[in-house]
């Protein structure tokens, strides 16, 4: 066999013998594929677009071109590529890329059309295998940074780390090198010389990324089974990479607006009276809250889809009352089904052969909360349909969202999970659990999302999950599992959530206040400040922890916590709008600064501050007894949201941040809608929206496109939404503001209160749609004028 044998000592000195693809004997181009025949097997390049190229290895055989469920069905294909034989190498040209493939010693290099190298295979070995393991080696460049990889601890830049993709219930404290956690997203972004590219490794087995630990020249990724099948995604911007990645794995659906509000949870609120008391407290104290979570004690001995008759004698009445008060009840569901012959869900699953078994027909049985359990085989459509329909039992009594926990799946044994020998039926294409493990939660979430969609009539489902795989954004929000009430966990949350966002998962958050351990008033106040700008905002803690509701500590803390929950609601219109954008572009709501300021090296590993969209900068405090911190301001001018103080960009500044202050900045030149505070989404019609315009003498124009709809139903799909573009022009003594109603299928606002900040002098005249008005106000460089929503133009003469 004409293969090269390589001894690799990269993995803990374990010697392994790899076979690698080496010499190309023949090639042929067909449709959007380029097939390369090598003595050791086949390599196929599939051109999805001119910037997305799939690479699949067939070791000793034809390449297997099937895909995992992470990929959405698409009909993208790019056929216009040209292949030229250049002697030593094949040159493939697309509209955006030049790809060189070495013929003697296989290796692929990706260049832009100007000949700049974007990324290439390692020169000594590129693609190979060792027994069941399949592996790719990539050139590591000196300045290369890495992002993505989903839910990982550590800094924003993932370089010099080793990471495992194997969904795991990790209760031990999450520290910088705790790995793996609950999610597996084998998607990596490289950034080098201001060019970003992505690699999505479409392999569901346990996989590994070694990003240069002990090696200067190469990095590599491999899986313990399955195919070497990856997608190269060209940038050059991080935004383009994430957009393309979410074209492959799906954009998130529009969430119900209430799910972006504040959630209150505890393991567990019970009995019914306690839930009522919590709810009543929120309303009496006027602390906004949209959702209350029911953890495992609502169930009858942890039998899923049941209620404990003593603790919750009349769930329908309770949930109806909560609903009337504006709370959306969310119940936890674990996949383990109690092995109880008198339990109908167990009976149905057995009768229909829905549970996971070994090859010899024995059920996989292990312990979770209910004791010995069996586990649905979500790889089968029939099981997913059955599971989805079971949710009707909950939606019928008023449940509005589902929280899927323990779905790695977690079990109480030495491996913490299902035996890898268990067989999944996968609708005929069966395989062992090691192939489906990382998909278990994903497929359960798919079933849940689809079940809720069916049984919540014309309402958008809300699903929250602990485990997931690439593409999970199509079905569920993600929370980062069992963190602790440690100050360090505020810090840890930021890069973790930012990288989740870069990995397609926009809707994510951590347990505010910390799950395990006792929080303190100060910690909860600071954590709530972070939470108010994190996409998923839920306070949750475990059974042994002290209570940590917003009022659990001294009044000083309660008022600060309340202020920040209220702030969330002021920003909710903007946050909802950013979520809408995420449904279109895949771009995260919570972003690392590097996504907005890619060429600024100061941002490349900036892990303790983040952006919300492209105009809000948040720099939380994550240490006790701190009343100041350093903030990096990238280019431009930044306004302190609270004081209006200006900061010039490209500098580090030490800013004051007493306990009641979250350092929060708005980029000069931008437009920001702010809504009135409500106790919950939909409490009342919002008739007037505040539009803030942060003027800057150096920025002459900006615009903001606002999406709006009923926030709840699917009617937006029939055109019941509005898109309004606000634009200003600011030059010398003229300020002009225009409103362009581009889509008017939904009307909410009757008027806009425009607040122009930093207006240099008192206006001489204000003209609204051609008519001069005098009911405006100018104070401290701020001009306020309220206009009917149907206005098209406001002119201000200074
Ligand atoms: C797991 C979850 C946690 C939940 C608990 C009880 O530890 O991560 O959020 O409260 O189980 O259901």
TrEMBL record:
<dbReference type="InterPro" id="IPR017853">
    <property type="entry name" value="GH"/>
</dbReference>
<dbReference type="GO" id="GO:0004553">
    <property type="term" value="F:hydrolase activity, hydrolyzing O-glycosyl compounds"/>
</dbReference>
<protein>
    <submittedName>
        <fullName>Family 31 glycosyl hydrolase, alpha-glucosidase</fullName>
    </submittedName>
</protein>
<feature type="domain" description="Glycosyl hydrolase family 31 C-terminal">
    <location>
        <begin position="586"/>
        <end position="672"/>
    </location>
</feature>
<dbReference type="InterPro" id="IPR048395">
    <property type="entry name" value="Glyco_hydro_31_C"/>
</dbReference>
<dbReference type="Pfam" id="PF01055">
    <property type="entry name" value="Glyco_hydro_31_2nd"/>
</dbReference>
<feature type="domain" description="Glycoside hydrolase family 31 TIM barrel">
    <location>
        <begin position="253"/>
        <end position="578"/>
    </location>
</feature>
<keyword id="KW-0326">Glycosidase</keyword>
<comment type="similarity">
    <text>Belongs to the glycosyl hydrolase 31 family.</text>
</comment>
<dbReference type="InterPro" id="IPR000322">
    <property type="entry name" value="Glyco_hydro_31_TIM"/>
</dbReference>
<dbReference type="InterPro" id="IPR011013">
    <property type="entry name" value="Gal_mutarotase_sf_dom"/>
</dbReference>
<dbReference type="InterPro" id="IPR030458">
    <property type="entry name" value="Glyco_hydro_31_AS"/>
</dbReference>
<dbReference type="GO" id="GO:0030246">
    <property type="term" value="F:carbohydrate binding"/>
</dbReference>
<dbReference type="GO" id="GO:0005975">
    <property type="term" value="P:carbohydrate metabolic process"/>
</dbReference>
<dbReference type="InterPro" id="IPR033403">
    <property type="entry name" value="DUF5110"/>
</dbReference>
<dbReference type="Pfam" id="PF13802">
    <property type="entry name" value="Gal_mutarotas_2"/>
</dbReference>
<dbReference type="InterPro" id="IPR025887">
    <property type="entry name" value="Glyco_hydro_31_N_dom"/>
</dbReference>
<dbReference type="Pfam" id="PF21365">
    <property type="entry name" value="Glyco_hydro_31_3rd"/>
</dbReference>
<keyword id="KW-0378">Hydrolase</keyword>
<dbReference type="InterPro" id="IPR013780">
    <property type="entry name" value="Glyco_hydro_b"/>
</dbReference>
<feature type="domain" description="Glycoside hydrolase family 31 N-terminal">
    <location>
        <begin position="43"/>
        <end position="210"/>
    </location>
</feature>
<feature type="domain" description="DUF5110">
    <location>
        <begin position="688"/>
        <end position="758"/>
    </location>
</feature>
<dbReference type="Pfam" id="PF17137">
    <property type="entry name" value="DUF5110"/>
</dbReference>
